[in-house]
Amino acid sequence: MEIPSPLQQGMSPEEYKELFISEYCRSRTIFLVSPDTSIRVEFRPSMFEHAFFESSDRSGAKDIFSAKRAERMMLISSLLDDVTGERYFGWDKEAKKDNIKRCVMVHNSFDFLVVIEFFLSKSDEIRGRFITCYVADSWDTLPKIKRHAKWDFTFLRERLAVEKK
Fold this sequence. Notes:
Strand 6 (97-107) and strand 7 (112-120) form a beta hairpin. The chain has helices at residues 13-25, 47-52, 67-70, 75-81, 141-146, 153-164, and strands at residues 29-34, 37-42, 53-54, 64-65, 86-92, 97-107, 112-120, 126-135. It has one domain (13-164). 29% of the residues lie in helices and 32% in strands.
């Protein structure tokens, strides 16, 4: 029996954008912390270009559509749903330390990473915001990510409560 691929292949950039909007921006997307704890995650249509385009010359200008990233789009929800998956704190380039407000989720089978940033809503609930996703296509990307501290919801919740005061 052949297992269907989770990759969405052969679509135009416009079709991928509509899929992103319909699957993530227009739906109530949840990040499972544990089987009984979840966090709502915001997805904005404007993040499509940031997440699914890349720089042709590493200048930072996102000028080329990345089919490799877009094909993996539906893996975002599987990473958000996987309470046993690999999750690490993000990295703050300027401070050169872990960013406790960010979670990097790793899908090892497809070398795919998803980054979510957490914040306190006006009603004091922890919420998430989709930042980006990308393919770890450099030999050192995954080892660098995996050197960071494991993501810890309790630590995040405590730190956000302290910052609120």
